[in-house]
Amino acid sequence: MQLHHCRLFVLLLLITGPVLAQSDIEGSSDHPLLTRYPESIITWYETEKYFEYNLATGPITGYRYIAERDTVAGQVYRIFYDLPSTKEEVSIGEVYIDYKRAMEQAGMTILAEGLVPDGGGNKIGSPQWIGIALASQQPPGGSPASKLFAGTATSGGTFTLIGRLSQPEGTTYVVIYGERHSKDLIGYLVDIIEVASAETGRVSLDPDYLAGELESKGTVSIYGIEFDFDSATLRESSYPVLEQIAAYLTQHPDKNLYVVGHTDMPGTLEYNRTLSHDRAAAVVQALENDHGIATGRLLPDGVAFLSPKSTNATEDGRALNRRVELVLRPN
């Protein structure tokens, strides 16, 4: 998504000081929409052409459960910053207030916010809340960003800020999680999602992408497998996507998968469960018959509309819900 220059908001933080970028990891940069807190250094950076981001905006409502969630999808940028500082030099509250003020001045709608100075409880922005909110999209273990889940001084405080910027050119979400990791270090993760349609997923779909998603998450949603209306007949437009799945399976002969069909809401549960299963079975049959994938490596199933990615109240939401998922099976 290209942001039109005349509507581009560059968020300038209010505390002045030099920005030290010379120690940033290679290939990283601030997002054009959002600068860093002064003295911060990028220690982890990742961008993906199409990513389904699970956005939690409400309080904890059950055991490790947040009910108010939605899926926003598109180009994602994930940037983790280290801010070397003692409590006397910079407090976690100062970082939180500066980012909140900058987001508001840029015209963003704040969807969720929380500053927990003592790092306790389960309020929005607390360590427990952040862990649940990020459970399905934690940064890789061992990466500098994983320290967000292993603070040694959570009593130094944590925070969360989630904002949405709506423009004629498109919608962008900004999500920030921060904590005082130790007496000498603040760490904060900035996730920026530039919303785009599900079809963008075809760009990222290749064997390496599939391998990365399945290795890190155990599942991957596939968009671009299309069927005739109300049918399990595959359209020709699906063939390039099936070729990429077959390439992954050929390159990873030790991997076996469930192929799971998902539908949107219209129709009865029984009808959609049958349709979703039949569509998954059609995918398995095509991979076996047309691409030589051994029988038994793929098992089809269908769950109808019981596991939505988004709301069924809008066409964009229904498009996200109509999908095929690949799920790793234990060997």
TrEMBL record:
Instruction: Quote the Gene3D superfamilies the UniProt record gives.
Output: OmpA-like domain
**What range(s) does the OmpA-like domain occupy?**
215-331
What keywords does the record list, in alphabetical order? Cell outer membrane, Membrane, Signal
Q: Which InterPro entries match?
A: Bact_OuterMem_StrucFunc, OMP_bac, OmpA-like, OmpA-like_sf
For this UniProt entry, which residues form the secretion signal? 1-21
Q: Where in the cell is it found?
A: Cell outer membrane
Kindly give the Pfam families that the UniProt entry links to this protein: OmpA
Which is a Gene Ontology cellular component entry for this protein?
A: cell outer membrane
Quote the protein name from its UniProt record: Outer membrane protein OmpA-like peptidoglycan-associated protein
Its source organism is Neolewinella aquimaris
List the top taxonomic levels of the source: Bacteria, Pseudomonadati, Bacteroidota, Saprospiria, Saprospirales
